[in-house]
Design brief:
The complex is a heterodimer of chains A (66) and B (317). With 66 residues, chain A is mainly beta. In chain A, 12% of the residues lie in helices and 39% in strands. Chain B has one domain (42-219, 228-313): HUPs (Rossmann fold), CATH 3.40.50.620. Chain B has a seven-stranded mixed beta sheet with strand order 7-8-6-3-4-5-11, sandwiched between helices. In chain B, strands 1-2 form a two-stranded antiparallel ribbon. In chain B, strands 9-10 form a two-stranded antiparallel sheet. In chain B, 45% of the residues are buried. Classes of the chains: A mainly beta (66), B alpha/beta (317). The interface between A and B is medium-sized, with 24 and 42 residues.
């Protein structure tokens, strides 16, 4: 599968079906800090992603508080 | 994982509430949370005109969207901070949203009116960029709202923003700032417009989820000046705690509002405000902090002080 990690401006290729939760652990990303999107759909952490999928990890943290 | 209301596949899990929703029921939950916050905190009524501070990011566009859907009378305000391509892109997003909704969007242009960007203002007055930016935005929110006769200024600050600010204020025992941190800051002077934060009950993941589900095209990239900002460090630290113990951010901030704020407000002297001698905006001194900053910067850059900000309309009236 192709994983687009927006806030790190990088893409990674992984093989094998896994749950979103495990994908994030593998990539060292705190699940609280991102939303996981496949196509136009948001995925919960127990959803499974497979080889043919392209998923985006979209950061939810914004900074520069005023 | 199933939606709590209809048993369809869930799309958004809300761990601090031990629940999950499909798109349709998440939007219903989200809008109800916002409506409840506005009514419970008496932020504004459907008769009031509300100025929504719009940055082009997820929170402010989601806020504008939900307020419009709830039937409130809103006008957007975009402030051009002059931060290169970041500002240009965020303005495009804000203007595109306004055009798509046939909504009125005002523009306040800092480089156009003051002759320099917030980064220039920061450099010239030896501030960090976020300080000059925050001061400029607070000043212009109030100025535009006052001149336009708005009842309140609404910003998209969410639970994560408020919890991060609170953590920073606690770590350094900023008691003055602690006393002022609230979802509603009432007007305490005729020239000071009420400020409200209708998203204070809602986590940052949820505002992002709302924007994505609604198809709102927002600027995902962060301000280049926020790299390494303390506020981001505090958010990351809180997210580590939240991941291990869901509800930590809510407990910290809501607990502060209920138990901590009354304590820090107890010994606080009321602040006397008066009109700034140069611009007429409310201030604790003779000349407000914004005028002092822009005048000092103009002096340093050998520029004449620019006239007061003009507001132009970007979107349809």
């Amino acid at each position: 599968m192709k994983v687009l990690i927006r806030h790190q401006k990088r893409e990674v290729e992984l093989r094998g079906t896994r749950r979103v939760r495990d994908l994030l652990v593998e990539l060292g990303i705190n699940p609280e800090s991102v939303l996981v999107i496949r196509g136009a759909a948001l995925l919960t952490h127990d959803a499974r992603v497979a080889d043919e999928d392209t998923v985006e990890l979209r950061p939810v943290i914004s900074g520069g508080l005023a | 994982m199933r939606c709590r209301k209809c048993a369809a596949d869930a799309t958004v899990e809300i761990r601090r509430h031990h629940t999950a929703f499909c798109n349709e029921h998440f939007l219903e939950f989200f809008e109800r949370q916002v409506a409840r916050a506005i009514e419970h905190e008496r932020m504004f009524t459907p008769e009031d005109s509300v100025l929504v501070a719009v940055s082009g990011g997820k929170d402010s566009l989601a806020l504008w969207d939900v307020l419009r859907r709830l039937g409130y009378r809103t006008t957007g305000l975009y402030i051009n901070l002059g931060i290169g391509e970041y500002s240009a892109e965020s303005q495009r997003k804000a203007a595109a949203y306004a055009a798509s909704q046939d909504a009125e969007l005002l523009l306040a242009d800092i480089p156009g009116e003051y002759g320099m960007s917030v980064e220039d203002l920061a450099r010239a007055t030896r501030r960090v960029p976020c300080s000059a930016c925050g001061l400029s935005k607070r000043y212009l929110f109030n100025k535009v709202a006052r001149e336009g006769g708005f009842a309140a200024v609404a910003t998209g600050h969410n639970l994560d923003d408020e919890a991060a600010v609170l953590l920073g204020n606690l770590l350094h025992w900023q008691t003055e700032y602690l006393a002022r941190q609230a979802p509603v800051l009432d007007s305490t002077h005729p020239a000071l417009v009420k400020k409200v934060k209708p998203f204070f009950r809602i986590a940052e993941r949820e505002t992002a989820a709302y924007a994505i589900i609604r198809g709102i095209d927002y600027i995902v990239d962060e301000c280049p000046n926020s790299v390494g900002a303390r506020s981001l460090l505090y958010k990351e630290a809180l997210n580590v705690l939240e991941q291990a113990a869901p509800g930590t951010k809510q407990s910290l901030y809501w607990g502060f509002l209920e138990h901590g704020r009354p304590l820090v407000q107890g010994g606080r002297q009321p602040v006397e405000l008066q009109a700034c001698l140069h611009c007429g905006q409310p201030t604790t001194g003779e000349v407000c902090a914004f005028c002092r900053m822009t005048e000092r910067a103009a002096e340093r850059m050998r520029l004449r002080r620019a006239p007061a900000a003009q507001v132009t309309t970007l979107g349809p009236a």
